[in-house]
Design a protein that fits this description.
Layout (H helix, E strand, L loop, with lengths): L5 H11 L5 H28 L4 H21 L3 H8 L1 H4 L2 H14 L5 H8 L4 H23 L1
């Protein structure tokens, strides 16, 4: 092994590197994401059965799902779900809640201001800035072109 050239070394390394399991990852992401969405649909159906209109059902479902994602992150469960479900756990609104709560919890020992408050939006901050900025631009363009 001492006198391997680049080609021989690359072949040797390729044999040792584990092959990714794309199909398994896709299936698990689909199942975990589907389960999260099924829970959200159950919340929506429950709120509709209580007589709430579509707008209130949407808001209520978002609030409940953010709460569930935050609670599971606080209990250390959402990270385990994320390891199994990958993008299926990261994409729904519960994943967004996780991306805000996890850094806040990690830095809580540094205090409320310099720890939790400062680190809470490390991951989610750029998403919020882009989303808010884009909505402002879209709103201004809509006003300009629609009168």
């Amino acid at each position: 092994m001492e006198n391997l050239n680049n080609n021989e070394y690359q072949k040797f390394a390729d044999k040792k590197v584990p092959k990714p399991t794309y199909l398994k990852n896709v299936i698990l992401a689909f199942l975990v994401g589907g389960a999260i969405c099924t829970i959200a649909q159950g919340v929506t159906n429950f709120l509709e059965s209580q007589g709430y209109n579509e707008d209130l059902c949407g808001m209520g479902t978002s609030i409940v799902m953010i709460f569930i994602g935050s609670l599971l992150t606080g209990l250390g469960v959402y990270d385990k779900i994320g390891k199994v479900g990958g993008a299926g756990a990261a994409v729904p609104i519960t994943g967004f809640a996780n991306s805000i709560v996890a850094p806040a919890m990690e830095f809580k020992r540094e205090g409320f201001i310099f720890g939790v408050a400062a680190k809470m939006f490390i991951i989610a901050g750029p998403v919020l800035v882009y989303g808010i900025g884009s909505s402002i631009i879209a709103g201004l363009l809509s006003i300009l072109f629609k009168g």
